[in-house]
Amino acid sequence: MTDKISKDPAATPAGSGPSGTPYEAIKAIPVRHYGRWVSGVVVVALLGWLVYAFSQGNIIWATVGDKLFDPSVLTGLWKTILISVTAMALGLVLGILFAVMRLSNNPVTGAVAWLYIWFFRGTPVYVQLLVWFNLALIFEYINLGPIYKDETSQVLTPFMVALLGLGLNEGAYMAEIVRAGIQSVDEGQTEAAHALGMSQTKTMRRIVLPQAMRVIVPPTGNEFINMLKTSSLVSAVQYTELLRASSNIGSTAGAVMEMLFVASIWYLALTSVFSVGQYYLERRFARGSTRNLPPTPWQRVKTNITTFKRSPEASA
Questions:
Q1: What is the residue-wise DSSP string for 266-308?
Q2: Which one, of 38, 61, 5, 123, lies nearest residue 261 by Cα?
Q3: What does the alpha-carbon distance between residue 170 and residue 232 come to, in Å, rounded to a whole number?
Q4: With 90 as the cut, is the pLDDT of residue 98 above it?
Q5: What percent of the chain is modeled with pLDDT above 90?
Q6: 10 Å Cβ neighbour count for 58?
Q7: Cβ within 8 Å of residue 273, ≥6 positions away
Q8: Model confidence at 38, in pLDDT bands (50, 70, 90)?
Q9: Average pLDDT of the residues in 111-130
Q10: For the chain, does the N or the C end have fewer beta carbons within 10 angstroms?
């Protein structure tokens, strides 16, 4: 007499069906993406062709290496960083000011803020730089009565022209970024602060802006990186930054293209460094909204190294 097969799930061996028949192992077959391989080969071929074309061109690459740390280039590099940081600081202050003005219930301050944003966002920054540079053609003197009086050409130095042109233009964009960040904070936060007796200024400074920074920081970092590249326009107003310093050497030494490559290398280095700083800043302000922070680049490298070391042991 044959034994009956138990239908108790606990009595069924692991990896087998109700009748005791073992399941067949599932063999997963990955989907082949031939388009990815084709596109990858095409991209690599194009990059190889581009590198080969420049290697065969009439470019003296030794000059690029020799002039990369030229004192004039390094001075221009420092001036690029200086004008970018100061103009961004001015733009950030103006952005916060005009964002608060635009959100104000006062129709006058709101209209003034809207007019400022409309004008400086609607005209090219290059035109604004030229207007400030040629302002002495309209106003020969800057006369503030008994407070201050001097010639306009003495006040509007190349640095001041670059600062006003870049800073005022950036302030219009930062005003919209800050306004979006402030409006992203729930209104209940402001109402709760007012219920505790906090003033409008203290509420904005201690409650709203710290929470809005999570929204403000990413586009602000992008704006600063864009400022680094836009600062090359100030060469038109006689400010000797990185591009103008490189161009001066290139026109004198007859190495125009070589010096443009030098400037490009330094711009890439600057944007790379500040992009890393932006990543860590965004990661810091994301602590209150994300349970698990994304790993830092160094943490990713250590993870990959650890995985690479453990893979031979696992395979054995």
A1: HHHHHHHHHHHHHHHHHHHHTTTT-SSPPPPHHHHHHHHHHHH
A2: 61
A3: 15
A4: yes
A5: 33
A6: 5
A7: none
A8: confident
A9: 93
A10: N
Residue in this structure with the two tokens 């943490």, named with its chain if needed: 299
Both tokens of residue 271? 């944007």
User: What is the DSSP code string of the chain?
Assistant: -PPPPP--GGGSPTTB-TTSPBPPPP---PPP-HHHHHHHHHHHHHHHHHHHHHHHSS--HHHHHHHTT-HHHHHHHHHHHHHHHHHHHHHHHHHHHHHHHHHSS-HHHHHHHHHHHHHHHHS-HHHHHHHHHTGGGT-SEEE-TTS-EEEHHHHS-HHHHHHHHHHHHHHHHHHHHHHHHHHHS-HHHHHHHHHTT--HHHHIIIIIHHHHHHHHHHHHHHHHHHHHHHGGGGGGGT---HHHHHHHHHHHHT-HHHHHHHHHHHHHHHHHHHHHHHHHHHHHHTTTT-SSPPPPHHHHHHHHHHHHHHHHHHH-
Token code pair at residue 42: 């095409």
Question: What pLDDT shows up at residue 314?
Answer: 45
Q: What is the pLDDT of residue 2?
A: 47
